[in-house]
Amino acid sequence: MSPPTTHVDRGDRIDFWVIPADQPAPVVARLRLLLDRTELDRAAAATDPVRADRFSTVHGVVRLLTAERLGIAPADLVWSYGPHGKPEPVTAGDDRLQLSYSASGPLAVLALAEGRRVGADVEELRDERVATRLAGRFFPRSDQRFVRDGTPSAVSDRFTRLWCRREAVVKVYGGRLAQGLGLPLAGTGPLLLPTATPLDQGPCRVQDVPVPGAFRAAVAAEGAADLAVRHRLWTAPASLLEPHQPLQHSST
């Protein structure tokens, strides 16, 4: 007799997208057409053309994937922003879809969930000396020891993972990074933060998520329920290279 399977409801699932931000020029140009005026102005303000293209790519893909979940056209998606910039889609009569995204150089991540606030962060590995200095300045003692007691090659890894966890937890509640610097997040596995946190919020789950290259990432979500994370890689669909075709995403 086979063991029973565990059903994961869509409302319990977090779709965690990994988005390569360096895309061919035709893809970037097509994604840029999806952006609203505020996003276009931010892209235009970048003095480095590489950064401008990456911004357009990431924000275009976020629109594409969010709109697909909502069943609307990407260009019709309207954002509202929290006091510290966390975006939420403005949809008629439905506020269940929650999201968080982050970008670091050529890599970005997006977390999508329904009925549960989420936070996501990705960071490039920090230099060992910088990691040690920042941990000593900002982290609680338990996290300082966790970073410092690692092998030289592990110091950068441990620091960057803990930094991503802080960012992800803070983003769940739309707060500021300073509010999460004192959180004790040391360890290698998923963590449950209790109700009494420096953010003065309810319980929160946080865990690392694998990403390629010299990057680390984390995802967090409100509540004590386990995180059912579906890891997905965004690839540019053929429709992005065909101007007269409707945009549809593809994934692996």
Automatic annotation (TrEMBL):
Signal sequence segment: none
Positions of transmembrane segments: none
Keyword Lipid metabolism in record: no
The protein, known as: 4'-phosphopantetheinyl transferase superfamily protein
Residue stretches making up the 4'-phosphopantetheinyl transferase domain: 117-183
Domain of life: Bacteria
Keywords of the record: Transferase
Family label: Belongs to the P-Pant transferase superfamily. Gsp/Sfp/HetI/AcpT family.
GO terms of molecular function: transferase activity
InterPro entries xrefs: 4-PPantetheinyl_Trfase_dom, 4-PPantetheinyl_Trfase_dom_sf, P-Pant_transferase_sf
